[in-house]
Amino acid sequence: MIIGIDIGTTITKAVSIENGKIIRKVRTKASDAVTSATGAFGKIILENEIAMNVIEGIKITGVGASKIKNDIFGIPTSRVDEIKAIGTGGMFLSGMNNIIIANIGTGTAIIEANERGISHFGGSGVGGGTIIGLAKKLLPTAQFSGIIKLAQTGNLSRVDLLLEDIMDTDISFLNRETTAANFGKMSDNASSADIALAIINMVYQVIGVLSAFAARAKNIKQVIVTGNGSDNKLGQKVLTDVITSLYGIEFIYPADAEYTTAIGAGLA
Predict the structure, then answer these.
(1) Given this chain, do its domains 2-79 and 95-258 carry the same CATH topology?
(2) pLDDT tens-digit series, residues 6-21
(3) Smaller CB count within 10 Å for the chain: N or C?
(4) Residue 172: what pLDDT?
């Protein structure tokens, strides 16, 4: 058995892998890398009654991996490059071997993965951290669940400047409901719900456009969405309604997508 651990900036995820299959998954939250890694490891073995002697090794990745200098609890521990882990996990979960991956975490990394190798295509500082950061100043809650709840009743036209606000007809392949400028028409009557929706819309539009450009540059028609931000239903709607309709790129959300990096580390 191999334990793969992804030590993130806020959340750490761990998976157990046997014979190339994902058996168990856990997630923890802690303030430092060592506590996160050992906590995730302890949680996965204690909750699942795994004997220490069946664990062949631990593979760690993520921003906190560099803080772990020694083996964890005497078990051989190796470090896996995060880009390699994302690419490996993305190909495994999607069952595809020529893909573009948009890994949405605090920021967003765009990865190209195929049989020839795995590389960092690009990315953006825009991601889940952007949503939380803006919410702290603009909304009554910075809890992600609270932001999503607010956004479900929001009206984007009270915050975003749409093409219909400045044009009488469609432009090229852009319809009149397309955003011309995020936050470009901030109404005095805009509610917290409207602002919450506009924040999510802006973040996922940026992610979607960058992902679509990457996919089109490589003549690929699908983007695999992974990371903590992959399960945001409102974000998924933005990607489908805006990016797919404009650019013809399909976004795929594999099962266990939030564990992609931990899975990739364990399989690498």
Answers:
(1) yes
(2) 998 778 999 999 998 9
(3) N
(4) 64
Q: Specify the CATH class of 95-258 in words.
A: alpha beta
pTM of the model: 0.91
Residue 174 has pLDDT above 80, yes or no: no
Q: Where are the domains of the chain?
A: 2-79, 95-258
Domain 2-79 belongs to what architecture?
A: 2-Layer Sandwich (3.30)
Cα–Cα distance between 243 and 246 in angstroms, integer? 5
